Amino acid sequence: MSVLTPRVTTRPSAGRGILRMGLWRARFELKQYFRSGDSVVFTFLFPILLLGLFTVAFGSDGDFQPAPGLPAVSLGQMYLPSMLAAGLLLSGLQNMALDIAVERSEGMLKRLGATPVSPVSYFIGKIVQVLVTGVLQAALLLAFAAFVLRVELPSEPEKWGTFAWVFVLGITTSALLGVALSTVPRTSRSASAVVIPLVLILQFISGVYLFFFQLPEWLQNVAGIFPVKWMAQGMRAVFLPEEYAVLEQNGEWNLTGVALALGIWLVVGLVLGRLTFRWNRRDA
């Protein structure tokens, strides 16, 4: 991966220069991302592939009714909120943590530190890349669910408003936590071994691959500590019938709790990322 920077011939104001450099980095990051086949498959297409697989594998018996008195829905509709939450985690936390860990281990960040690129510009580029790929991934996932799996998407504007703020808050929180997590792997070879198992565990205990209401109460309480559970809960409030709120821990969607939990983790990720980020490891 190259660490080229644009040629600067004039000296703009500090703020404009940082923003311009950040947008240039964003374009560079997007090109690099879509040229990397493994990143596209495992962080971009993976939730789409899983949604199709789960629906085909477990949906042969028709619609799913989790409890008497609740309206039956398709397996595609049941899994769609979880896969959207998984996409936020993969595009944000996993992608960011792996990219930065590899760039630091291979000396790319050290070389960037000797160029006009400031840490702010660097992270503008990274976060814009995460936001763009996250939006594209969610759009493809929704299109796949609607046109291939015949999932009925909500028509109420307020539902889509909820989707918008859960999405933005969730992917920003995931990205900032990914910055903090990137400092844990000591080498590029160990990055996948550190990050991917952690992401998988978070998904399993947070009701991504298993329906959350089927998990034991103690595991639901553990999952409630982490942001993935709240992202999935917010998405369930958008795409599942209102009656399904009774399956949540407190019998309600609790969107205020979703916003509060994600907001707290966003601040945690911001503080940890600010305190731990270095162009190179301290022990290098």
Shape: elongated
Question: What oligomerization state is this entry in?
Answer: single chain
Low-confidence stretches: 8-12
Q: How far is the first residue's CA from the last residue's CA? A: 20 Å
The radius of gyration over CA amounts to 20 Å
Q: What level of helicity do the residues show?
A: 55-70%
Number of helices: 10
| Mean pLDDT score | 89
Largest sheet: none
Total beta-strand segments: 0
Structural class: mainly alpha
Strand content: under 5%
List the domain count as a whole number. Answer: 1
Write the layout of secondary structure elements.
Blueprint: H1 14-35, H2 37-58, H3 75-105, H4 108-113, H5 119-148, H6 157-181, H7 188-205, H8 217-223, H9 227-239, H10 255-276
Helix pairs in contact: 1-5, 2-3, 2-5, 3-5, 3-6, 3-7, 3-9, 5-6, 6-9, 6-10, 9-10
Summary tags:
single chain, 284 residues, mainly alpha, 10 helices, 69% helix, 0% strand, elongated
Describe the protein.
With 284 residues, this protein is mostly helical. The chain has one domain (16-56, 74-276). The protein has 10 helices and no strands. The protein is elongated and about 65 Å long. The model is unreliable at 8-12 (pLDDT under 50).
Structure described in brief:
The protein is mainly alpha-helical.
